[in-house]
Amino acid sequence: LKFVCYSNDGVDEHMVWLIGLKNIFARQLPNMPKESHKSVMVIRRNHVVGGITYRPYVSQKFGEIAFCAITADEQVKGYGTRLMNHLKQHARDVDGLTHFLTYADNNAVGYFIKQGFTKEIHLEKDRWQGYIKDYDGGILMECKIDPKLPYID
Ligand code: ACO
Question: What's the pLDDT band for 36 if we cut at 50, 70, 90?
């Protein structure tokens, strides 16, 4: 198992994985909008198993998680937790972010709570208002990224 993060960089292997991830999102999240940003992916035996696509607002130091899914037969094996830890480490150390916001689907709120997200938003409104899109049906949740914690070994 390895965790990687790529944008649309034109490398064939990366593109195959990104398309695979897009297909997982399309199946798992049928109402997803049609744009993507940066994606942390779980790769096992050269196949994408799941991932998180997020948009880093570097000037505001927060990221918006747009999509998060693990393929059906690989869920509840801990990949979702490890994926989130890789995302936090990458977002902090590469993008310089301090927080995540996401509109969580109702049935995913439990997963996000286990990853340290809360329904209380502590981030000052002027840091995020007007940046993230209001998304019908989701619950806005926040996660503070620890400035020092090693999220991955
Ligand atoms: N509700 C409550 N708890 C959950 C859920 C859930 N839907 N999913 C996982 N958990 C729990 C697990 O039981 C586990 O608890 P434990 O640590 O006490 O054992 C913990 O959360 C982590 O489980 P993982 O195995 O790491 O999670 P998994 O690999 O299954 O990934 C995910 C979780 C991404 C939510 C996956 O189940 C999935 O793809 N679901 C369908 C798509 C979806 O709902 N995505 C989120 C939509 S919201 C958005 O994208 C912004």
Answer: low
Which residues have CB under 6 Å of ligand 1?
28-29, 65, 67-70, 75-81, 102, 104-105, 107-108, 110-111, 114
User: ipTM greater than 0.90, yes or no?
Assistant: yes
Tell me what pLDDT residue 134 has. Answer: 72
Separation between Cα atoms, residue 28 and residue 12, nearest integer Å: 24
- Tell the burial category of 104 from Cβ atoms under 10 Å away from its Cβ (0-12, 13-18, 19+): buried
**Span 2-144 CATH architecture:** 3-Layer(aba) Sandwich (3.40)
Mean pLDDT of the chain: 92
